[in-house]
């Protein structure tokens, strides 16, 4: 049966890319991981949308019914939890946008200076673990990789540029694997944003997401065809993930959050469609809380920091605000200033997509496929957590892991025993 699936992979992939000169690198290749993130891909997309290359890898290797994201189910917290094995309260990247009361500074994904500032990035990402222990690491776009965390950068990295084509990203990965041994990375990250972007704009059930998933699947096919021609397909471990899923939302089901409180009483408010975080001015916490309690509808959950469910692991960091409003899935939180453009848009009543909700929601679950010499074959598992995968990568690479929140019982569930 295993040979059947390997043959299937070969048939699917060999025609997917141009010829790449064969090398002799396959002989004695040290353990190597390519960590791939397909941002916003829900595990159901494998069945719902054309993805023959991903499905071939899943059938031959290991696939999870769900990879549970950390809370909040946002892009930066989950990508960074994936590579550090820590919950956001332990690594400090608690949202895509943050306020730090100690620094009295704000962080947004679009602020390149702060994205590259190591003060925001706690914990130890896998590329730092590798570099500190004498291995070469390479990142082709990944949250945290633009900063010198613990004074260390990957040997190869790029500032994020969404205009770089997916094909160029894949070709660069293949080039890295052909470098001389001393320069060749052992841990490589690769990131694709298209599925998430189309999910936000058109909703997870759209033809646009279908096409984006098909396009990314073709890039995976190109990568595996390249690995095959280099003789590396069965020597390189592929760990294919997403950071979260996507929920379809109707924009008419919105809650105007800044009509439920007086924003002038807050020092800082982090607005998003799923989670609003509030730092009150001195002496105003209870006033804001009572305003929200009186004015919010039942589809918005009001939580003090101390009331966060324990399963969220979202209490013990100074960047976690004293007050939060969490939307019920399928509802969105909006500001008054957003309403005019939102309502007059021709697509106002068309489906959109959101994530950031309760991380136990089925729609928020992420994708996990693993294929390669270290992983179990023809295996399906129910669920693992985002924080469990860092330790799996250090085990494969023979590294001593930094402190993390992963469950060691997950390692034998994913890796071969021999």
Automatic annotation (TrEMBL):
- The secretion signal range is 1-26
Q: Which UniProt keywords apply?
A: Signal
> Gene3D superfamilies, per this entry?
3.30.1360.180, Alkaline Phosphatase, subunit A
Listed PROSITE patterns: PROKAR_LIPOPROTEIN
Keyword Signal (UniProt) = yes
Taxonomic superkingdom: Bacteria
Would the keyword Nucleus be found if you checked this record's keyword annotation? no
Spell out the coiled coil positions from the record: none
InterPro entries, per the entry: Alkaline_phosphatase_core_sf, Phosphodiest/P_Trfase
Q: What is this protein called?
A: Ectonucleotide pyrophosphatase/phosphodiesterase
């Amino acid at each position: 049966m295993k040979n059947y699936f390997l043959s299937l992979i070969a048939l699917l992939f060999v025609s997917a890319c141009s010829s790449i000169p064969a090398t002799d690198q396959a002989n004695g290749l040290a353990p190597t991981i390519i960590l791939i993130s397909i941002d916003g891909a829900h595990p159901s997309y494998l069945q719902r949308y054309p993805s023959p290359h991903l499905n071939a890898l899943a059938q031959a290797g290991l696939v999870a019914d769900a990879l549970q994201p950390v809370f909040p189910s946002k892009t930066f917290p989950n990508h960074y939890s994936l590579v550090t094995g820590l919950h956001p309260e332990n690594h400090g990247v608690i949202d895509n946008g943050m306020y730090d009361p100690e620094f009295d500074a704000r962080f947004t994904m679009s602020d390149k200076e702060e994205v590259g500032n190591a003060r925001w990035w706690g914990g130890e990402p896998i590329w730092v673990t590798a570099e500190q222990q004498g291995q070469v690491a390479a990142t082709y776009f990944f949250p945290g990789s633009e900063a010198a965390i613990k004074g260390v950068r990957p040997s190869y990295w790029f500032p994020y540029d969404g205009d770089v084509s997916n094909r160029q990203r894949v070709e660069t990965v293949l080039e890295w694997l052909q470098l001389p041994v001393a320069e060749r990375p052992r841990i490589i990250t690769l990131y694709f944003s298209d599925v998430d972007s189309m999910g936000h704009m058109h909703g997870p059930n759209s033809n646009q997401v279908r096409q984006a998933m098909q396009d990314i699947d073709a890039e995976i096919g190109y990568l595996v065809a390249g690995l095959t021609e280099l003789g590396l397909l069965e020597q390189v471990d592929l760990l294919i993930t997403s950071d979260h899923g996507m929920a379809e939302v109707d924009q008419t089901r919105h809650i105007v959050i800044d009509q439920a409180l007086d924003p002038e009483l807050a020092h800082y408010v982090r607005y998003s469609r799923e989670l609003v975080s509030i730092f009150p001015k001195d002496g105003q916490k209870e006033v804001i809380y009572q305003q929200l309690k009186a004015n919010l509808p039942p589809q918005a959950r009001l939580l003090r920091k101390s009331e966060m469910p324990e399963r969220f692991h979202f209490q013990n960091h100074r960047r976690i605000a004293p007050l939060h409003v969490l939307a019920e899935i399928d509802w969105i939180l909006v500001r008054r200033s957003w309403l005019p453009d939102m309502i007059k848009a021709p697509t106002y009543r068309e489906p959109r997509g959101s994530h950031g909700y309760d991380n136990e929601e089925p729609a928020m679950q992420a994708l996990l496929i693993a294929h390669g010499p270290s992983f179990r074959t023809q295996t399906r598992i129910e669920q693992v957590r985002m924080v469990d995968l860092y330790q799996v990568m250090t085990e494969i690479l023979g590294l001593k892991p930094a402190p993390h929140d992963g469950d060691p019982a997950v390692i034998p569930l994913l890796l071969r025993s021999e």
